[in-house]
Specification:
The protein has 3 domains: 136 residues, no CATH class; 29 residues; 121 residues, Butyryl-CoA Dehydrogenase, subunit A, domain 3 (Up-down Bundle), CATH 1.20.140. 79% of the residues lie in helices and 0% in strands. The protein is elongated.
Length: 329
Amino acid sequence: MTETDSDDGLSLLDERSTTERLRDWVLLRGNRAALSAVVLLGLLLTVYFFVALEVVKFRRLQPVYYVFGGLISGNLTLVTVVVSINQLLLSRALQTPGELESQIESTGAFKRRVEDAAGRVAPVRPTAFLNLLMENTRRDAQRLGGLAVGSGNDDAWEEIDDLVTSVTRHVDSVVDLTENADESPFQALSATLTTNYAEQIHRARTIREQYDLTDETDAALDRLVDRLEDVDIARQYFKTVYLQDELSSLSRTLLYVGVPAEALCILVLLWLTALQSVIPQLVRELVFPVAAVVGLVPLVVLFSYILRTATVTQRTSATIPFTTPKQEA
């Protein structure tokens, strides 16, 4: 490859990285309130743009009645239905004492297994716990790589070295993502959305079956598989906690913004019926777009939240030993 080709490749990589970062912010990491504000601002500017082009003139008020009447009925239905569905989903988290005891015991057993592998007490915060899992995974991967050195089986060594390199690189990337992150379940979850480790586990088991390795190397491969499975178990648990928290936040936010938006649309509609013949054209062109966009706030908030929950659900839909293309993107 020539120097020019190399530079072009780096430019394309940088451009793709910028696009990926923007996509990642919109779908996952961006604050949902900030995303909603950006979308609403874009809608408002779009409406004013059409007003400036005189495509939208607001000279006849009958269509405006229809718009605000539709917003009133639509927001009432939207907020009521979404909040009801969310509460129904969250009610599934209500359990009997026996079910709670069983869940606590199984969660505690998993935590103790991770502590046995680490040789120390595991933290209780999601991000710190994920870092401990990654520490265990990196250590066992490097132990596996050390056992393969000088094994005399070059094909097996190449396969193991490639597996160890892949796992270690991914572990380092996850640790980098969580280095300055807060301790929310979403931060721990989002750092592991690019894979569920099914491919790495499949490769480890294939190597174990394909080559005649020492008992110690076979045991090291099994330990690495166990560590990767631990990460996926923790990730699925973090997803459950995150979705419960996110749906609760969505219900609360919809109520906060839905009631004012509904009240504003009703006031504007009543104002129109009282002053329809004396409203100056300039006031119509300035006030109506703002009021209409405010009426869309509940829908935009729902869009922002569902965009992230749908992305998380899609990327964690499969659990080990299976995977999907979206989880290996």
